[in-house]
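U., I forgot to send this yesterday:
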Amino acid sequence: MIGTLIKAARQARKLTQKQVGEALGINDRHVQAWEAGRRNPGPKHLAKLSEVLGLDVRDLLPRRT
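Result:
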């Protein structure tokens, strides 16, 4: 699940949801929703989110089954 990955990467970097949101120019509630699996990051946030969290952008893309 993408949300679990986002949360683990954020915590590993000792960042708060607010800090991630600020880095992306969004509200921390968006980050909460991503981590809870209620939403996925939109295309305009993927590159910056991967940079902030030290992830490969491909890891943040939804998987097709």
